[in-house]
Design goal:
436 residues; Methylamine Dehydrogenase, Chain H; four-stranded antiparallel sheet; repeat; WD40_repeat_CS; WD40/YVTN_repeat-like_dom_sf
Length: 436
Amino acid sequence: MDSLLSAYSTASDDEDDSLARPIPMRPDYPPAERAKPEYPNPKPRFVPSYSASPSSNFPTEAPIPGRYISKRERAALASGGTVADPNPPSLPPKSPVLGTISESDLPRTVLSKLRHQTKGRANLGQIPEAVSITLHGHTKPVNTVQWSRSHVHLLASAGMDHTVNIWNVWGREQKRARVLNFHKAAVKDVKWSEQGLFVLSCGYDCSSRLIDVERGIETQVFKEDQVVGVVKFHPNSFNLFLSGGSKGLLKLWDVRMGSVVHEYTRSLGPILDVEFSTDGKQLISSSDESRSNVSENSIIVWDVSRQIPLSNQVYVEAYTCPCIRYHPIDPYFVAQSNGNYIAIFSSNPPFKLDKYRRYESHGVFGFPIKCNFSLDGDMVASGSTDGCIYFYGSKSSGLIKKVKAHEQACIDVSFHPVVPTVVATCSWDGKVCIFD
């Protein structure tokens, strides 16, 4: 019994000792100090703004790396909410919109005249004698002007001030509707496209540019390794255009592909002008061959599809020709010569020079003076270094009338595509004038 009691008493004593043993406690460490910021006065944290709409409960900007993201932001991202791109793609540059290009801004009398005027013959006695509208906007010489055939109240002009201006000629308020300043250097030429409100321009920045006039944006750029001096749309396919430049290269471009489809290669000087025949099967190029002392290549007639010259001995006189124009009806073309006359050539092989007729009274003297036929082909109008317009009878080659237009050289003359008595001119003084 004593041994049994001693056994139980030992177990009870051990149990009481284990219960009475004190529980070890964690040592008391001093509280850790919070890290001080690197800068004593930190900038306030950016708090993203949210839309007031209940359906747009996600941040309007992407989270910045290293920034604290709140629970609401994390929930929005986890639920598939879209976050705006912090670097959105840049929109194409737009040209300044100064006025409207709509017909709604035209007076009723002018609008009725443009819509109901039939394309008839211009009476030789109805040649305009005075300026009706003067358009100011260019700050340097203007190289060319051209009317739009699809929107006959609009006129395009290209200048040495790096701009192409679109004019709403008879607009009540702002006549300068668009300033297309996409070129980085002087603009040499501009042409209207027959497909919508587009213009094609070229210049000293070694490029041709297709521009949407209505939206004021550049849609395509065609780069070259030469100064592009002239462009011309194909008469039967408005997706094709020809360009000529300072290295004597002639290139036929396809707008749909944005690339060259034909090249017309020959050792030529700078291209001064190009012109398609009325059927589009032939083209004529004029180049500056004064450095090579070989004038036989100054005017060349090409076969468009075969890319070969049909004749290179069309004009053998030692003058350059800054302008080439086909007659709209009869089988001949003319060339403005720096010999101060307009030469006449047959458009049928062998493209002979007419030695008995020429248009001469005006002056060229090295300026890029242009000429144009009237709609019916009865008249030829030419600019001149004395600032006048010279009107010639196309068949008689005699001078009909001389009209004072500018104080400095008159560079280009363009007949209106609907009203035969309306003529636009541009000058070396930067002015564009309308005769009516």
